Amino acid sequence: QVQLVESGGGLVQPGGSLRLSCTASVSGFSIETMAWYRQAPGKQRELVASKLRYGSPVYAGSVKGRFTIVRDNPKNTLYLQMNSLQPEDTAVYYCAFDNSWGQGTKVTVSS
Question: Of 25, 51, 60, 88, which is most buried by a Cβ count within 10 Å?
């Protein structure tokens, strides 16, 4: 079982930025799919962005142009740079490496 540790969540004002990190207990080179999901209160978990070992990243339409997913295999780490944050981005964000999940980190966008 892969262990994932997330960090970087917090409270930010609308228009602000945050960077989430997710570090794995195994080599990043052994992971096929790395992804970020989020779950807002009262809503289903949704895919935010994903990055296969090879290929271009995929983004949800609601975050395209504002969020950037970066996969750093040598550091076993996945990042999510979030810019121009809006209240509707408020959620618990989870990283997923193949079939393993992080514990979640809360992001709150509010003035």
Answer: 51
Residue type at position 15: G
Residues 19, 8: Cα–Cα separation, whole Å: 6
3-state secondary structure of 52: strand
Query: In the Cβ-directed half-sphere of 93, how many Cα atoms lie within 13 Å?
Result: 31
Residue 34 contacts residue 50 (beta carbons within 8 Å): yes
CB contact set of 101 (below 8 Å; sequence gap of 6+): 4, 94, 95
β partners of residue 59? 49
pLDDT of residue 26: 84
> Are 93 and 6 a contacting pair, CB within 8 Å?
yes
Q: What confidence tens digit (pLDDT) does each residue in 8-50 have?
A: 999 999 999 999 999 998 888 888 999 999 999 999 999 999 9
Beta-bridge mates of residue 107: 10, 91
**Distance separating alpha carbons of residues 96 and 100, to the nearest angstrom:** 6
